[in-house]
């Protein structure tokens, strides 16, 4: 039996996985999210973050420096010969501002020191508080003080002062009458050159039996270079609130190069440039980083 001719059925094509897309050279449209995470944008963002971080670190350093200078230590320079040979012109000091306390309620909680005879102190000059002086404490509140031929007596006993420096012999008053006030203190019968008028009047009220009585809250200070020091003999007591602190160490000391700084800008720049280029020659290495006693 024969069958009619039927159309041939083509075999099904083999199943195959789709080929990966071919990279196109045409520009692609990106979403905002994609653009924000581009390398260029990240570089700008990182730079901004680093700048903000640097500014924050700088401000933090400045705040810490201001805090340290205000409450802990401060730098001062010695401009005169009044403390020779303990401190010389050109010595740069770091002063401890916390050692004596802040004269507040915290003074009872912290182990602060009391101002004592023999302490070297930095203070606001009572006559002009904008100026800073450095002297040695000779008398504390309640003391009775006098000088006899350059020798200091406190409460009737002579002080042992190995740090004192004299320019003239003890009998110099025989040659120079003006030294009688300086070397034999207090004197209420004769004034002296450079004597403050208010102090001259106040001193007369505080002298008993030839001794000066130091009132509460005040200190009598003198320079170690006794023959060349404008101190309490000439302008009076230092109030406790004027005392800034006590020198810790000489962090740098220079020779006479720093004695007279120029007043003009160009002169100061030259002065600074000379110091930078001659720092090894002008530095007193034997005094640098020396503790102050």
Q: What's the gist of this structure?
A:
It is built from 7 helices and 13 strands.
How would you characterize the overall build of this protein?
The protein has 293 residues and is α+β, with helices and mostly antiparallel strands. It has a single domain, classed as Umud Fragment, subunit A, CATH 2.10.109.10. Helices cover 25% and strands 20% of the residues. The strands form two sheets. Strands 1, 2, 3, 4, 10, 11, 12 and 13 form an eight-stranded antiparallel sheet that branches. A hairpin with a 2-residue loop joins strand 5 and strand 6. It starts with 31 loop residues before the first helix and ends with a strand.
Write the layout of secondary structure elements.
Layout: H1 32-36, H2 39-72, E1 73-77, E2 91-96, E3 120-124, E4 132-139, E5 144-148, E6 151-154, E7 157-158, H3 179-183, H4 197-205, E8 207-208, E9 211-213, E10 218-222, H5 232-235, E11 238-239, E12 243-253, H6 265-277, H7 279-282, E13 290-291
Antiparallel strand pairs: 1-2, 2-12, 3-4, 3-12, 4-10, 5-6, 5-9, 6-7, 8-9, 10-11, 12-13
What is the global morphology? elongated
Helical content (DSSP H or I, runs of 4+): 25-40%
Which H/E pattern describes the elements? HHEEEEEEEHHEEEHEEHHE
Quick one: CATH class?
A: Mainly Beta
- Biggest sheet descriptor: 8 strands, antiparallel
Number of strands: 13
Strand content: 15-25%
CATH architecture label: Ribbon
Count of DSSP helices?
Answer: 7
The structure class reads alpha+beta
- Any low-confidence stretches, pLDDT <50, length ≥5? 24-36
Q: Can you tell me the CATH topology?
A: Umud Fragment, subunit A
**Radius of gyration using CA atoms only:** 39 Å
- Total domain units: 1
CATH superfamily label: Umud Fragment, subunit A
Mean pLDDT: 80
Distance between the termini: 137 Å
């Amino acid at each position: 039996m024969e069958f009619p001719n039927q159309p041939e059925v083509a075999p099904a094509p083999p199943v195959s996985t789709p080929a990966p897309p071919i990279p196109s050279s045409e520009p692609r449209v990106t979403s905002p999210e994609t653009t924000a995470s581009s390398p260029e944008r990240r570089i700008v963002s990182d730079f901004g973050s680093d700048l903000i971080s640097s500014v924050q670190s700088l401000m933090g350093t400045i705040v810490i420096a201001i805090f340290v200078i205000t409450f802990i230590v401060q730098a001062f320079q010695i401009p005169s010969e009044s403390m020779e040979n303990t401190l010389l012109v050109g010595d740069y000091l770091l002063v401890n501002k916390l050692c004596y306390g802040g004269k507040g309620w915290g003074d009872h909680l912290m182990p602060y020191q009391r101002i004592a005879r023999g302490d070297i102190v930095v203070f606001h000059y009572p006559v002009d508080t904008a100026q800073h002086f450095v002297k040695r404490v000779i008398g504390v509140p309640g003391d009775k003080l006098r000088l006899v031929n350059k020798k200091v007596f406190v409460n009737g006993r002579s002080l042992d002062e190995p740090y004192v420096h004299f320019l003239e012999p003890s009998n110099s008053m025989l040659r120079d009458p003006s030294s009688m006030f300086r070397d034999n203190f207090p004197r209420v019968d004769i004034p002296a050159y450079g004597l403050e008028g208010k102090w001259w009047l106040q001193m007369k009220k505080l002298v008993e039996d030839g001794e000066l009585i130091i009132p509460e809250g005040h200190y009598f200070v003198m320079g170690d270079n006794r023959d060349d020091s404008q101190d309490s003999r000439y302008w009076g007591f230092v109030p406790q609130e004027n005392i800034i602190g006590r020198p810790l160490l000489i962090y740098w000391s220079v020779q006479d190069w720093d004695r007279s700084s120029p007043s003009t800008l160009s002169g100061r720049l030259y002065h600074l440039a000379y110091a930078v280029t001659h720092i090894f020659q002008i530095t007193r290495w034997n005094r640098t980083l020396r503790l102050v006693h």
